[in-house]
Amino acid sequence: MTRPSAPPIPEDLERILRRMRLPYLRKAAPDVLATARAQRWDPAEVLRVLLNEEVTGRDSATRRMRRKTANFPSGKTLASWRPEESSIPEATQNALTTLEWVGRHENLVVSGPSGTVRVRPDVTVCVRAHV
Fold it and tell me: Where are the alpha helices (DSSP H) in the chain?
């Protein structure tokens, strides 16, 4: 069963949102406004939800851009990391994932013999640091 689609926002509002470069707010507006009408939200709540959508969208786009600029391999996260397959001691892995060393302005150097996979731990830690 599909949900009925929310009515589109008025054209003048669409133009304003395009002019102000608010793509994520513009995309969320029809559904949020329909929900707000149905549930009789306070206008401040509507504004808060819409602005939150814009901020969330921009933050996500910024992370994608930074990862692309840093040439990180896509899809490498700590969630996909398998610590049991690593030769890095578990205590060291846990210390790295807390990112406490970043706040202390310490560096991370990963080294090993040629042909071994060293990219995964440092990429996943860097990705987490940017999130």
Answer: 11-19, 23-39, 43-69, 90-98, 100-103, 119-130
